[in-house]
């Protein structure tokens, strides 16, 4: 009897196959976390050879910090999800295996040309090759509570900024205290709005042509747009999220306090679950005289880290191929409001829009339906530029300075950041780390 | 008489202290040394290279308006919260020295807030200062827009000071209570017989006799505000609006961990470290002088 138990224990202790397993870090809670768990379990069940261990180290920012810390300590995960603004840092990190190279090395023929042009434009390097795998792509859209619009006598949904202003005025006249809510997030108001209108926020092709870029957003379209936003804010057509009951923009919309909302397509799940009966989703408006360009992909992409053996990379490549499968892209879109990444799947969704979240359909319209390309900003120390922009805009909204001054100060700070980033990464052979 | 404890060899006590010293070195000294080193470089986050720039990082900080904004915020925050925390704790402790019922119960109630983390206080306060549903929302019904801590820096700072003072009161209270109880009852009794009322006794006897405790509490509060205000700021204001509450400790976090600017963040932390060293030296001086007098 004892020998039998010992024998069984021995059997359990011996690994079954020379299976490679690896860790995959992603940074989600809620519906997206559930979808990721489902994809991981699906991959592990689909074959015997490889195993993925899916870990949630924290928010996007924390995942980036931990990736850096673990890489420096040689404890990094093989595959990690990094948010859009971390893209340039990852590309220059010297710590990654470009995903196109990984897939080619392991014999996968990926049709990279099938990726949506806006996504290709954002995630490929100077040679047009993908360094990372676009995974959970989102973009900004306009959510509307059509019940409240109807009560105010509005039947057509706004598609230009002027129409949006008109709609907000009518809502206000009909007694709506919060026609439109925003958390004044630069991701939407600076990056998305400018890209959709085809106005770069920095020269050198929004930073894609090297590190010598300078910011341009203190003039032209963005300045006019922000001045208009400030007027809306003064006239209580646009309410700041912090001035609502819940203090959060998505909640202010889902609780019915506000009738219209700028938010990511990935907010769809929270909005759908809130039980609001009639919600419409539209691409962000444009100016009437402008031409619509593709919006910027937000969200995150998957990076393969250096430092593993071939067996592990084979497993990573198999997992990446699994994630790219059309049914898995569709699963992600249906459950979370994140967008598909290939043209093939986008077309499948547009053929059958009723079975997908309205936010996904509007998001694909915004990211891809335009004939004009648009290139989103990819610039150094970008999280700090976002903070600088937010700080200065807050000071303008509170009346301490005008919007032109605010954007000019943010630009100066941004240019200093770009210069320091350039110096940090300049030089062919920098001194070793202290 | 030999006051030294008896150890078999000279190295034995050192051996006993090694684990503690190792921890101090690993978690306090090594990071500090690393931060000082990084502050002279431009460091790439992934460590694949760096560039020596001498004092450039410091020069940049010292010529940057936003550094002075942070410094101003830090000083206002520190002075405000220390003053408030010391005053409230002193008032509470002095009142409890009068003949109050349920003295013991009150004493333990006043100590409770010490167990609450800064982040929790921040989240609770965020609800309390909400301009639509919070405690002061009625002001907006009287004068629309008058209470807007998300837009008006001074209001955000007031909320922050109140919250931080709230977390500091308990420690101060313990210090002051203990100091007040050490005052001989004879002294207070004699003063009472001479006709001194509670207020007179407080000003002429209690206050001078607990002066060392006041100083100690003040110094501890200042250092706490410099270094541990971070959690509260992160939960309550994220340094906003318009950098009005971006105290140095928060700025270091935000530059280094969100912005990935390791060198700028290191230089800033060295500056903060110098401030704290200076404060500590000042405190030591005061106490040494004080030891003779009190």
Describe this structure in words.
The complex is a heterodimer of chains A (434) and B (294). Chain A has 434 residues and is of the alpha/beta class. Chain A has 19 helices and eleven strands. The N and C termini of chain A lie far apart (61 Å). Chain B has a domain at 76-246: MetI-like fold. Chain B has a two-stranded antiparallel sheet. The model of chain B has no long low-confidence stretch (mean pLDDT 88). The chains are: A alpha/beta (434), B mainly alpha (294). Chain A binds chain B through residues 61, 64-65, 68, 71-72, 89, 92-95, 240, 242-245, 247, 381, 383-384, 387, 390-392, 394-395, 397-398, 400, 413, 420, 423-427, 430-434, and chain B through 34, 37-38, 40-53, 60, 66, 126, 130-133, 148, 150-153, 239-243, 254-255, 257-261, 263-264.
Q: What are the salient characteristics of this protein?
A:
heterodimer; A: alpha/beta; 6-stranded mixed β-sheet; 19 helices; 11 strands; 14% strand; B: 294 residues; mainly alpha; 2 strands; 72% helix; flat; MetI-like_sf (chain B); transport (chain B); UgpAE/MalFG_permease (chain B); cell inner membrane (chain B); membrane (chain B)
Itemize the secondary structure elements and their pairings.
The complex is a heterodimer of chains A (about 425) and B (about 290).
Chain A: H1 2-13, E1 20-25, H2 30-46, E2 50-55, H3 60-72, E3 79-83, H4 87-91, E4 96-97, H5 99-105, H6 117-123, E5 133-138, E6 140-145, H7 146-151, H8 161-173, E7 178-182, H9 186-196, H10 203-206, H11 220-234, E8 238-240, H12 249-254, E9 258-264, H13 268-273, E10 279-283, E11 298-305, H14 310-324, H15 326-336, H16 343-351, H17 358-369, H18 382-397, H19 403-425
Parallel strand pairs in A: 1-2, 1-3, 7-8, 7-9
Antiparallel strand pairs in A: 3-11, 4-11, 5-11, 6-9, 6-10
Helix pairs in contact in A: 2-15, 18-19
Chain B: H1 11-38, E1 41-43, E2 50-52, H2 56-62, H3 65-97, H4 103-111, H5 118-128, H6 137-142, H7 153-182, H8 185-193, H9 198-209, H10 211-228, H11 230-236, H12 248-258, H13 262-293
Helix pairs in contact in B: 1-13, 3-7, 3-10, 5-7, 5-11, 7-10, 10-13, 12-13
Subcellular location (chain B): Cell inner membrane; Cell membrane
InterPro entries (chain B): MetI-like, MetI-like_sf, UgpAE/MalFG_permease
Pfam family, one (chain B): BPD_transp_1
């Amino acid at each position: 009897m004892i020998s039998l138990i010992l024998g069984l224990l021995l059997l359990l202790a011996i690994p079954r196959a020379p299976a490679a397993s690896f860790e995959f870090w992603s940074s989600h809670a809620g519906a997206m976390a559930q979808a990721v768990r489902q994809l991981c379990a699906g991959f592990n069940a689909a074959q015997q050879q490889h195993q993925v261990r899916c870990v949630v180290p924290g928010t996007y920012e924390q995942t980036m910090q931990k990736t850096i810390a673990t890489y420096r300590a040689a404890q990094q995960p093989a595959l990690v999800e990094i948010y859009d603004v971390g893209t340039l840092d990852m590309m220059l990190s010297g710590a990654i295996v470009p995903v196109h190279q990984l897939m080619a090395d392991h014999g996968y023929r990926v049709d990279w040309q099938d990726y949506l042009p806006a996504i290709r434009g954002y995630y490929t390097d100077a040679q047009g090759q993908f360094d990372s795998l676009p995974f959970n792509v989102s973009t900004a859209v306009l959510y509307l509570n059509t019940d409240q619009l109807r009560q105010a006598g509005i039947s057509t949904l706004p598609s230009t900024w002027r129409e949006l202003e008109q709609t907000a005025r009518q809502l206000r006249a009909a007694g709506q205290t919060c026609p439109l809510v925003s958390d004044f997030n630069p991701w939407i108001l600076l990056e998305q709005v400018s890209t959709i209108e085809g106005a770069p926020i920095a020269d050198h092709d929004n930073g894609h042509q090297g590190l010598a870029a300078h910011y341009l957003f203190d003039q032209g379209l963005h300045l006019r747009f922000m001045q208009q936003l400030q007027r809306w804010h003064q006239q209580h057509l646009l309410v700041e999220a912090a001035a609502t009951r819940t203090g959060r923009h998505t909640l202010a919309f889902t609780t019915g306090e506000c009738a219209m909302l700028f938010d990511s397509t990935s907010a769809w799940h929270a909005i759908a679950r809130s039980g609001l009966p009639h919600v419409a989703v539209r691409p962000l408006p444009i100016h009437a005289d402008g031409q619509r360009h593709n919006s910027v992909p937000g969200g995150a992409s998957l990076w393969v880290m250096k430092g593993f053996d071939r067996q592990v990379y084979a497993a990573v490549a198999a997992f990446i191929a699994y994630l790219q499968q059309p049914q898995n892209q569709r699963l992600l879109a249906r459950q979370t409001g994140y967008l598909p990444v290939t043209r093939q799947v986008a077309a499948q969704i547009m053929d059958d829009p009723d079975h997908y979240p309205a936010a996904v359909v509007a998001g694909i319209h915004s990211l891809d339906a335009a004939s004009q390309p648009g290139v989103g900003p990819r610039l150094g120390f970008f999280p700090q530029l976002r903070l600088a922009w937010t700080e200065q805009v807050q000071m303008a909204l509170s009346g301490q300075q005008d919007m032109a001054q605010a954007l000019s100060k943010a630009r100066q700070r941004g240019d200093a950041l770009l210069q320091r980033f350039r110096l940090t990464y300049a030089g062919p052979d920098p001194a070793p780390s202290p | 008489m030999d006051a030294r404890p008896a150890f078999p060899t000279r190295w034995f006590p050192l051996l006993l202290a090694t684990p503690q010293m190792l921890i101090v070195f690993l978690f306090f000294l090594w990071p500090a040394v690393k931060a000082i080193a990084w502050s002279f470089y431009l460091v790439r986050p992934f460590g694949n290279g760096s560039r020596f720039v001498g004092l450039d990082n410091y020069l940049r900080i010292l010529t940057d308006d936003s550094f002075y904004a942070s410094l101003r915020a830090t000083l206002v925050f520190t002075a405000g919260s220390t003053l408030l925390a010391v005053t409230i704790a002193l008032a509470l402790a002095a009142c409890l020295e009068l003949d109050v019922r349920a003295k013991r119960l009150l004493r333990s109630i006043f100590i409770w807030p010490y167990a609450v983390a800064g982040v929790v206080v921040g989240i609770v306060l965020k609800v309390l200062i909400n301009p639509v549903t919070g405690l002061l929302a009625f002001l907006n019904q009287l004068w629309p827009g008058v209470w807007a801590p998300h837009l008006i820096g001074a209001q955000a700072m007031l909320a922050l000071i109140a919250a931080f003072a709230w977390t500091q009161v308990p420690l101060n209270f313990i210090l002051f209570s203990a100091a007040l109880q050490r005052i001989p009852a004879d002294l207070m009794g004699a003063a009472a017989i001479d006709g001194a009322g509670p207020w007179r006794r407080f000003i002429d006897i209690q206050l001078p006799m607990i002066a060392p405790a006041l100083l100690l509490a003040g110094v501890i509060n200042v250092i706490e505000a410099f270094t541990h205000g971070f959690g509260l700021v992160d939960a309550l204001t994220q340094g906003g609006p318009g950098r009005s509450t971006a105290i140095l400790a928060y700025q270091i976090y935000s530059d280094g961990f969100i912005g990935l600017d390791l060198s700028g963040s290191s230089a800033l932390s060295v500056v903060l470290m110098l401030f704290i060293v200076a404060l500590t030296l000042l405190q030591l001086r005061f106490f040494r002088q004080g030891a003779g007098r009190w």
